[in-house]
Sequence to fold (217 residues):
Amino acid sequence: MLGTIAVIGGTGNLGAALARRWAKSGLTVILGSRSAAGAQEKAAELGFGLSGAANADAAAQADIIVVTVPWSAQEATLREIAPHVAGKLVVDTTVPLVPPKVMRVQLPVEGSAAVRAEALLGGQGTLVSAFHSVAAHKLATDEEVDCDVLVFGDDKAARTQVIELARHAGLRGLHAGALVNSAAAEALTSILIFMNKSYNLDGAGIRITGKLTNPEP
Fold:
């Protein structure tokens, strides 16, 4: 049982697309935004029983908190919701993209956005990192998205919950190891952006090949 999901930054492209897919699959989802009115308006637009609230209020009501804000907003957003994350699963999707050089890998001094997020939350909640390399504009449709989701975290049970979230979004989630490994997926996003431009691709993703003989190690 996944419980109530708050999508923080849910009026943005990735947050709205994930929230819509989860709500359509039957999950209870609250859109969070800096403006409660903006979140409520977007929720009504998306439908499927979505509701909207200010970020902190959405986080307070949720069992699972999914943070889908840009790198520039990560610190302020996490500090805003930090009082409401204790005992909860927090999924961070942040990629450290620094305009205008978004095609160049620019990991933070902490090693990854995920490790930085864990520090900003002061160890409150259980942090998992995922959904870095999925094109938001493809998720926003009802089409199948040919892309795997690499899931990083130090708690196996928490990773398994996020893999279930990926399944509800119509994606295949895969255990990818400890939270520090998130650096690889965060860096890969800049490479995918470069490949999109170089090869005229429409939202390149990743797919792990081979037969999975132990899909949940």
Q: What stands out?
A: Residues 5-199 form a domain with the Rossmann fold fold (CATH 3.40.50.720).
